[in-house]
């Protein structure tokens, strides 16, 4: 890079930036929100409930949390005080031939049950708006 006066260094050649932290991919984070219980982090399974904030829970986990406050330390359901604060969802399971088992990161997800739109057949994975 010279230094003899004949070259003009650019900023990138003089200053070294800190390396950025690796963040989880947006697709993987959305998939986790739509396929796992916000309270227990277990895969969603019937019956599934939703709170007024739009978070999805296993009904089992909500009942356990209401019976024993010390069971879960997460604040994800701190606003739920009674069972009337959540609504049971009627979701359509994705047919086996339409399921996509591969995420963008190449990981294969096999344990979480997937749901889809009964009209369009689009999977509920956070990539598209989904009304339930």
Tell me about this structure.
With 132 residues, the protein is of the alpha+beta class. The chain contains three helices and five strands; from the N terminus they run H-H-E-E-H-E-E-E. It is elongated.
Based on the model shown, name its key terms.
132 residues; alpha+beta; two-stranded antiparallel sheet; 3 helices; 9% strand; elongated
Secondary structure elements and pairings:
Layout: H1 11-14, H2 26-35, E1 48-50, E2 56-58, H3 59-67, E3 87-88, E4 92-93, E5 115-116
Antiparallel strand pairs: 1-2, 1-3, 4-5
Task: Summarize this structure briefly.
This protein has 132 residues and is an alpha+beta fold. It contains three helices and five strands. Helices cover 17% and strands 9% of the residues.
Q: What profile does the largest beta sheet have?
A: 3 strands, antiparallel
Strand order of the largest sheet: 2-1-3
- Number of helical segments with 4 or more residues: 3
- Mean pLDDT comes to 80
Computed CA radius of gyration, to the nearest angstrom: 22 Å
| Class derived from helix and strand content | alpha+beta
State the helicity in percent bands.
Answer: 10-25%
Based on DSSP secondary structure assignment, what is the total number of beta strands? 5
Low-confidence stretches: 102-108
Give the ordered list of helices and strands.
HHEEHEEE
The general outline is elongated
Termini distance?
60 Å
Strand content: 5-15%
